[in-house]
Every structure is written in C-alpha cells, then in structure tokens.
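User: Can you recover a sequence for this backbone? Please restate the input before giving your answer.

Assistant: Of course. Working from this structure:
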C-alpha cells in the first residue's frame, strides 16, 4: 500500500493564506520529489474557548476549490454534520474527515454517514477524544455500512489530564490494535495534533512509519507563527517536505501481535514513570506538611501497612520479592527526599 501524504493549514483563514500555502507545498513537494496527495484545511473549527477563531465557513470552500483547479490536488475538510457534507459536495470537495470531538458522539457520526451514503466520498475517521477502540471501530463501521468505498482511519492521540510532552498521548497500542482487527483499513497518523509542537513532529512521524502507518496528515502554514489556530504545531511547507523526504520508509515487517504487546508495555512503562513523578511531587507536599506540623518523617507502622496491601496482588513468590524490593526502594527514596 503506497503511503498517503496530506498537508495543509489547521484552518483556512483567507483566500491568500490558502492559495499561498498550497502553492508553497506544491513547490516544495516537487523540489523534494515527493507527492502531495490531499490538501487539508479546516473550514469550520471546533474550538475550546468561545472567542477563538472558528473558521472562515462556507466561503473557504471556494478557496479550496481553487486549489483543486490550480494544482489538481483534492482538498479535504472536517465535517460535523449533514449540512456541511452537502456544502462540500456542492463545492466538489469529495474528501471529508470526522474530527476527534465529533467522533465521541455516534449520533453525529451516523448523521454524517447518512449524508454521504452510496456516494463517492472518501471519509477519514479520526480517533475519538476518549481511548475507546470500540467506539472508533464503530464509527468506521458506520461508513462501511453506508457503502463508502474508501474509509481511512487517522490516529491523532488522546488527551490526558496529566501534563505531558505531547499535546495528546499517543497510546500507540490502540491504533495498532485497530490494525490487528481491521488489517485492510489504511491508518494515517496526524503527528501535528498528537505533538502540539512543531519540533516534536518529525520524530513521531518516523515512529508512525516504523509502526507501519500508511501515511501522515500534517498541519502546514505559509507563515506558521501567524496561524490563527494551533500556531505552535504548524510546520512551514519547507519543513514538511524536508521531513517527508527524510523519513525512513523501510517497513520492519514486524509481527502485529508482537508490536501490539510491545506498545501495551510501553504504555504501562509510560504510566509507571508518570505515576512515579506524581508520587515524588506528592512526597514533597507531604514533607512540607510534616515540617510545618513537626511530624516525624518515618512512620514505620504506616509503611508496613502499605507493603502488606500490595503483597496481596499475587501468589507468585518471585513477583512478591520484586515488589518488596521495589517498594523498599520507593520508601527509602521518599525518606531521603523528605530529609
Ligand atoms: C483538525 O485536524 O483540524 C482537528 C481539529 O483535529 P482533531 O479533530 O484531531 O482535534
Ligand atoms: Mn488544528
């Protein structure tokens, strides 16, 4: 399966911005000898806060139509309801995607599926904001049942209450499980919304390739720093072309089941390190309280209680020894920190 490269701004802001970004992407792609398959741009933007730029609306579909005519590159747009599907069709835009927010609501997704049914639309389905593979697969199934021939999944990561390096946590095991369960389905990665910061994008893009993803949807802007939405994560067209041309596309031919279990393990390790970090911060808070209230640092009975509680988890003696040693290490490091 050939890779699919999609690029374009988070949002269509003005005719000039849409056309300039497209022109630069086309030029950079040509110079780097890479294809640009689809041009993306959000026309209606779902924003978290009420006064943020909400997209240019229907007029932006004219600009995207111009891009299609000028460069013969299909444009793709996020749709949230049937009316927006109709407007896309009216402007000859035949590729749409369901965004991560819409994807949490099966009623909205079904409405979009009904609007595109038996048509030649290509539909891309982003993972929902919640890490629920069944829901993601259910959304994909809705478009298959609506007789859509070309359905593509897009992994854009999952929000996490903790502060992380990435804007959205990858949870790679979820899209890899999707690959296991729907092997025929192309899956792209959207490293832009996953990373949230431009400098993190190339590494995640390469990881997605290593994991056998079928392409990338990347946000690019002719003037990244001036972007009206998702400013931090816009790549310049040059940076995009340079990233794509430097990707190592040799497929590892990894066993999917093994890859899935490995990424499950990676996720567990990530959670452990996150929890250990949270724990360290909490230890510091406790140290403060103890200092203020003149309470002794070590309270042996309490610790004994904790150890007993975790011992119950398993009958396996080697595991028990490991937990004992691990908890002892944790305990000692907390004491040292508090002192
Ligand atoms: C987008 O691609 O413009 C977008 C809003 O992404 P997501 O739905 O993944 O947040
Ligand atoms: Mn965006």
């Amino acid at each position: 399966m050939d890779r699919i490269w999609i690029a374009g701004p988070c949002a269509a802001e003005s005719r000039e911005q849409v056309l300039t970004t497209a022109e630069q992407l086309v030029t950079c792609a040509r110079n780097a000898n890479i294809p640009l398959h689809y041009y993306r741009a959000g026309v209606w933007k779902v924003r978290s806060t009420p006064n943020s730029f909400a997209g240019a609306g229907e007029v932006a579909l004219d600009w995207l139509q111009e891009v299609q005519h000028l460069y013969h590159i299909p444009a793709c747009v996020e749709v949230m309801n049937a009316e927006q599907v109709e407007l896309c069709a009216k402007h000859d835009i035949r590729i749409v995607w369901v965004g991560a927010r819409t994807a949490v609501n099966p009623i909205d997704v079904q409405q979009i599926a009904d609007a595109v049914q038996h048509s030649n639309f290509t539909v891309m389905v982003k993972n929902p904001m919640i890490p629920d593979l069944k829901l993601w697969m259910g959304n994909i199934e809705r478009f298959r049942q609506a007789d859509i021939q070309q359905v593509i999944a897009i992994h854009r990561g999952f929000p996490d209450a903790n502060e992380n390096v990435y804007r959205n946590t990858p949870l790679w095991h979820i899209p890899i499980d999707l690959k296991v369960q729907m092997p025929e389905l192309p899956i792209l990665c959207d490293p832009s919304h996953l990373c949230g910061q431009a400098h993190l994008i190339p590494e995640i893009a390469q990881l997605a390739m290593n994991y056998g993803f079928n392409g990338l949807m990347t946000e690019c802007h002719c003037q990244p720093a001036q972007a009206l939405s998702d400013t931090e994560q816009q790549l310049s067209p040059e940076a995009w072309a340079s990233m794509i041309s430097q990707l190592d596309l040799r497929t590892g031919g990894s066993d999917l089941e093994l890859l899935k279990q490995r990424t499950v393990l990676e996720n567990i390790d990530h959670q452990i390190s996150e929890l250990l970090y949270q724990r360290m911060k909490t230890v510091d808070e406790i140290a403060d309280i103890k200092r203020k209230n003149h309470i002794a640092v070590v309270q042996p009975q309490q610790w004994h209680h904790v150890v007993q509680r975790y011992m119950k988890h398993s009958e396996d003696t080697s595991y028990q020894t490991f937990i004992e040693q691990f908890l002892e290490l944790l305990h000692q490091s907390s004491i040292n920190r508090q002192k």
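That completes the design. The first helix runs from residue 15 to 32.
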